[in-house]
Design a protein that fits this description.
Length: about 550
């Protein structure tokens, strides 16, 4: 590939989002400050997800550039997301108006992105994502004149970023003390990896040792804490309609009120972020210069307390189980259900959010059981899960569940009190019982098509809601409820005794119950549960 075109750039951002979704929890764990600025991996993934949505329908380079700039600005979450948005916006200033991006243009774009990120931060700190992007830009400028092909160019840039990321603990003592690299820099590395993968093909082997916290920092001594992250309690974010002069006055006022200040945007719309103890004055300063809206305030101290208690205590019979269960699920509601049924650990993941082998291995190693059954709950995660057994001394058996409803059904076959003479045999017997329980359920899913396609004679348009039963697309709908109707019609029969509907993130319960109420379900026992899963408004289990 000699250069990148608009469709290639869309693929890069899509791959970047996939990588962030896969590694977001690992990057979250790299946050070393007692009061994290949200969660770096999660915030960057949410920001990238907004960009992916904005890119839907973009065709020309100009449309792609506009979508990158607007999507990243409006979707930026947290300090890390805002900085990422400024990097992307800076790059689009160079890319916009061109039909192709060769090495020279890419180098100029990276430089503009680095400069934009530095300008956005009121007090730049070296050893952060800023350093990684700046040195990546320097490498790009050097590589652009070598005559290397585009794949070699991006590989040089990526390798320089890896080395810079590796050196971030040398620049920030707090990173060295915690045994981690900079979280934002790690997230940016995934963007460069995405460029390498789209241009060169194949998959980049990421430096897993850098993307893992080597030590956990409970709380730094007062002498080593930075004022901006250890004492300031609130994160305030909002969009602001205003002009450049007003925004400059806001920046100056905010310097008196807090830190971690990032204000980015243009053309009358700005994304504003500050850490402060003074919520009212911070917002009032914005009211004086424009119109703030979509105001979000996070109590960072409460966030830390929640993080410290995110591992729930296990019931005695589960905590003492010889065979434990590790399940994969996306959505706090689903995670809570798995835990209530006895799962000792729930790894975040699912469609487009596939956890790595290392994520699953970490969970297996941390559960207190002698042996472990793994529920992947997604067909793409099954082969990843099967690699874990070779990496641990614990006996591990994979029950190849291909959906969350199937995984939940499998949990009804789990008996935490069961023991065997040999842990490996106990795991095999437990897995057999769980497979039998899972076989009794039919699984339905409703999601949205991301591209036009024809599947088994069914014509699908991007944006259609897909009705899926047991992994096969059986119909489409203009709304999620239309597709749900197709799913329920296919799944409910004379032998159906129970129907469970798991609501996705943002799904309206009233709309779901109204849709179910339109069916004559007879004596079928119906339950509606908040699952909180992304991408899938509805998951359905029929037994």
């Amino acid at each position: 590939m000699a250069d990148l075109r608009s469709e290639d750039l869309k693929r890069v951002i899509g791959r970047f989002y996939e990588r962030l979704s896969e590694y977001r929890h690992a990057i979250d764990e790299l946050n070393v400050y007692p009061v994290p600025d949200g969660d770096t991996g999660t915030n960057m993934a949410l920001t990238a997800g907004s960009v992916v949505e904005a890119l839907d329908g973009a065709r020309t380079m100009g449309e792609v550039s506009d979508a990158l700039a607007r999507g990243s600005l409006m979707g930026a979450r947290g300090n890390s997301g805002v900085i990422l948005s400024q990097i992307l916006r800076g790059m689009t200033e160079v890319i916009d108006g061109r039909e192709r991006v060769d090495a020279a243009v890419a180098a100029e774009a990276l430089r503009r992105g680095a400069d934009s990120a530095y300008r956005a931060v009121m007090r730049p700190v070296e050893g952060t994502i800023l350093t990684v992007v700046r040195e990546a830009a320097e490498a790009a400028e050097g590589a652009a004149g070598t005559g290397d092909d585009l794949a070699a160019f991006w590989r040089r840039v990526y390798e320089r970023a890896v080395e810079t990321l590796r050196r971030t603990p040398d620049m920030l003592p707090v990173l060295a003390q915690a045994g981690v690299v900079d979280a934002g820099g790690a997230g940016f590395l995934l963007l460069l990896a995405a460029f390498c993968e789209v241009v060169g093909g194949g998959e980049v082997d990421l430096p897993e040792q850098l993307l893992r916290a080597h030590a956990r920092l409970e709380r730094l001594d007062e002498s080593s804490q930075h004022h901006d992250v250890s004492e300031l309690r609130y994160e305030v974010m909002f969009f602001l309609d205003g002009d450049d002069d007003g925004v400059e006055r806001l920046r100056r006022r905010w310097l008196e009120l807090g830190d971690s200040i990032v204000v980015v945007g243009g053309d009358g719309t700005y994304n504003c972020h500050i850490h402060t103890d003074h919520i009212g004055p911070a917002i009032e300063a914005a009211v004086e210069v424009g119109r703030p809206y979509d105001i979000r305030v996070t109590d960072l101290h409460d966030e830390v307390e929640a993080r410290e208690h995110e591992r729930p205590e296990l019931a005695p019979e589960v905590g003492d189980a010889q065979v434990g269960v590790v399940a994969v699920a996306a959505g706090e509601g689903l995670a809570r259900i798995f835990r209530s049924l006895g799962a000792q650990a729930v790894v975040a993941g699912g469609q487009s959010m596939n956890p790595s082998t290392l994520d699953l291995l970490d969970a297996v190693e941390h559960v207190p059981a002698e042996a472990v059954v793994v529920l992947p709950n997604n067909k793409n995660i099954v082969p990843v899960a099967r690699q874990v057994a070779d990496l641990t001394s614990k006996p591990v058996v994979v029950v190849a569940t291909r959906s969350v409803p199937e995984g939940l059904a499998a949990m009804f076959g789990y008996d935490p009190t069961f023991t065997g003479v040999d842990p490996a045999e106990a795991a095999e017997e437990t897995a057999a019982a769980m497979r039998e329980a899972a076989a009794d359920v039919h699984c339905g899913e409703v999601t949205r098509a991301v591209r036009d396609a024809t599947v088994e004679g069914l014509s699908i348009s991007a944006g259609n809601y897909l009705a899926m039963v047991d992994g096969s697309i059986v119909g489409t709908g203009g709304t999620a409820e239309d597709a749900l109707a197709v799913v329920v019609d296919r799944m409910v029969g004379p032998s159906t005794e129970r129907l469970t509907l798991y609501l996705g993130a943002g799904t309206d319960r009233a709309a779901a119950e109204a849709a179910l109420g339109s069916f004559d379900l007879g004596d079928v026992d119906v339950e509606v549960v908040d699952g909180g899963q992304p991408l899938y408004p509805y998951l359905v289990a029929a037994e």
